[in-house]
Write a structure and sequence with these properties.
Strands 1-2-9-4-7 form a five-stranded antiparallel beta sheet, with helices on one face. A four-stranded antiparallel beta sheet has the order 3-10-11-12, with no helix packed on it. Strands 6-5-8 form a three-stranded antiparallel beta sheet, with no helix packed on it. It has a single domain, classed as Jelly Rolls (Sandwich), CATH 2.60.120.10. Helices cover about 25% and strands about 30% of the residues. It has about 230 residues and is α+β, with helices and mostly antiparallel strands. The structure holds fe (ii) ion. Fe (ii) ion (FE2) binds next to loops.
């Protein structure tokens, strides 16, 4: 049976639907006023996600021009480095401490802009070209609520999200999912990876290694080690 929407989430949806044009300041205000907490959303947890998904991703609501998801993060769970496709406005509401990197992404390079974590109670803004990685480097599971919207599109607001896969030397596009070692069926297109500096690759590997260790992906871990060796020689 489909869980019923909690009152606080229904209020957020009604409020968002009452505005013709939304920006990040407005969605942040609406979510902040709703005073959401993790227990309001317990029914949508997906901590028991499959090993082929590197974090839990559960759709709560989608009316075409915006969607709401609850992500569940077990210890070691991580996204890949990704952006958010056609998203024009949105936010992430944190119910635990998430490890986070913000990147500067151009057509041919990726650099780290910020290494600051997000804490419980914080709300971060999201738009299509926001390139980041997030996950759980702690021992405690937690959830995050994500809203992605558009003022111009009537469907698939996070389509063509760009996902970087340094361990496979490629970048792919998806409908919005940003799993590590993603199932081929979720991939819309793929291309060779743009130039990524050593420090970005090493930092990325250190973040996602616990996930690959947890699911026993020895061949991917070996591939990562080989890449590190090659990069330190060259
Ligand atoms: Fe994201």
């Amino acid at each position: 049976m489909r869980p019923t929407l909690p009152n606080k989430v229904s209020k957020v949806i009604n409020e968002l639907n009452s505005h013709k044009l939304i920006d990040n300041a407005l969605v942040t205000d609406i979510v902040s006023l709703a005073n959401l907490n993790a227990s309001n959303l317990d029914e949508f947890n997906s901590f028991n996600h499959s090993a082929f998904e590197s974090y839990g991703r559960k759709l709560i609501y989608d009316n075409g021009n915006f969607k709401i998801l609850l992500m569940s993060w077990r210890s070691g769970d991580f996204t890949a480095i990704h952006n958010h496709g056609y998203t024009e406005w949105g936010c992430v509401c944190f119910f635990g401490e998430a490890t986070h990197r913000l990147y500067n992404a151009t057509a041919d390079e990726l650099t780290i802009l910020q290494k600051q974590n997000f804490n419980e109670g914080q709300i971060a803004s999201v738009c299509g070209d926001l390139t980041h990685i997030m996950g759980n480097s702690s021992s405690k599971s937690f959830t995050t609520l994500h809203i992605y919207g558009s003022n111009t599109r009537q469907k698939d607001v996070s389509k063509d999200a760009l996902v970087y896969m340094p361990e496979f030397n490629k970048a792919v596009t998806t409908m919005g999912s940003a799993y590590l070692n993603m199932n081929k069926q979720l991939i819309l297109s793929e291309k060779p990876l743009a130039k990524i500096p050593n420090d970005v690759v090493l930092d990325y590997f250190s973040l996602v290694k616990p996930f690959y260790e947890r699911i026993g992906q020895i061949s991917i871990l070996q591939k990562m080690e080989k890449t590190i060796e090659n990069r330190s020689v060259n």
